[in-house]
Amino acid sequence: MIRFAHPEYLYALGLIPIVLILFIWMSAWKRKAIRRFGDQAMMKELRGNSSSAKPVLKLVFLLLALSMFVLAWANPQMGTRLEEVKREGVDIIIALDVSNSMRAEDIKPNRLERAKQAISRLIDKLENDRIGLIVFAGRAYVQLPITTDFAAAKLFLNTIETDMIPTQGTSITSAIELAQTSFVGNDQKHKALIIITDGENHEDDPEEAAKKAAEEGIVIHTIGFGSPDGAPIPVYRNGVQVDFFKDHDGNTVLTKLDELTLEKIASEGKGSYIRATNSDDGLEAAMAQIGKMEKKSFGTKQFTDYEDRFQYFLAAGLFFMFLENIISTVRSRWIQKLNLFGENNKALKN
User: Fold this and answer.
1) Closest by alpha carbon to 90, among 292, 348, 324?
2) Using the 8-state DSSP alphabet, how is residue 12 labeled?
3) Under a CB-based contact definition with an 8 Å cutoff, are residues 227 and 275 in contact?
4) Which pairing describes strands 296-308 and 76-89: parallel, antiparallel, or unpaired?
5) 38, burial (CB in 10 Å: exposed 0-12, middle 13-18, buried 19+)
């Protein structure tokens, strides 16, 4: 198993295309300058044994050296042993509403994006808990099963959009029922469900579903994203807002936060209701409640005893730098003697 101790340093690899572009630009500028200076045949004679291929080879070695140094800087590490690590935590499933109403911008930049940002920060703080993701609109789907792979959780989180579920609506009931079957184990505790939505439920009876989930030991917290006064739902085309959603009569649709429903769901689920605002997304308050829950012990397989391997990349980088420095821009004499392209004959004829 290989990982990087400082993966953020890998962004420095972006220097490679910049160096390549500068080299191409400089080469084109030099050719243009030579053409302006005088006759091409005469300029070729004046340049003598200058090689056109060696600068390219030197650039290749320079870029390889730069790549190796950046990789060494990020410090690649290799896990030498796979073992089961015991953890104590809580299983957390986050059910995220992806219906069209989550595009409303009463919570900046909009309800869904702000919720995703909050979940991402929450994942960064997790240590011993396990997390799963459910997305729902008219129906609910498991986006990520319960896992301790927080990097995968953030990856799946980034792919969530409002158009990923074809069936529109807001079926909180389906999200709760799906969460019941998605938790791992048959124990009647150590399970928490966080529902992030504007609460505009259009399906079934979410309070009854929350009550049944609580009977199985699932604590349900609800976080309301939106304004009770309502906000229009913007319509975008090619990244540009062109209108707002309208009803059949041509009136602009306002999506309102249904706090009463979310309060009832949290009450039946023996959890708490929190209203998100532009200054507080509510997830920290929910996690504070979850932190008071009894923890369970579980084992996860993971690599341990990671050892640094930066020295190999550093050595490779120095080797390529050495090659780049010993190569001159003048053609070698033995290559000239080979006369691979008949250049000497051409010179005699001229």
Assistant:
1) 292
2) G
3) no
4) antiparallel
5) exposed
DSSP state string for 314-345: HHHHHHHHHHHHH--SBPPHHHHHHTTT-HHH
Calculate the dihedral angle through the C-alpha atoms of 315, 316, 322, 323, rounding to the nearest 10 degrees: 160
- Type of residue at 306: Y
Q: Is 106 within 8 Å of 143 (Cβ atoms)?
A: no
Q: CA quadruple 321, 322, 325, 329: dihedral positive or negative?
A: negative
Residue 260 token pair: 């009463």
DSSP secondary structure of 70-109 = HHHHH-EEEEEEEEEEEEEE-EEEEEEE-SGGGG-SSSSS
Question: SS3 for 209?
Answer: helix
Contact between residue 144 and residue 152 where contact means Cβ atoms under 8 Å apart = yes
Task: Record the tokens describing residue 229, joined without a space.
Answer: 């006064």
Rounded CA-CA distance 84/139 in Å is: 36
- Could you read off the pLDDT tens digit of each residue along the chain, which spans 350 residues? 677 888 888 999 998 899 899 988 888 887 777 677 656 565 555 555 556 677 888 889 999 999 999 999 998 887 666 556 667 789 999 999 999 999 999 999 999 999 999 999 999 988 888 999 999 998 999 999 999 889 899 999 999 999 898 888 889 999 999 999 999 877 778 899 999 999 876 667 899 999 999 999 999 999 999 999 999 999 888 888 889 989 888 899 899 999 999 999 999 999 999 999 998 989 989 999 998 887 876 655 555 566 788 899 999 999 999 888 887 654 545 444 544 444 444 444 44
CA-angle at 63, arms to 318 and 43, nearest 5°: 110
Write down the pTM of the prediction. 0.64
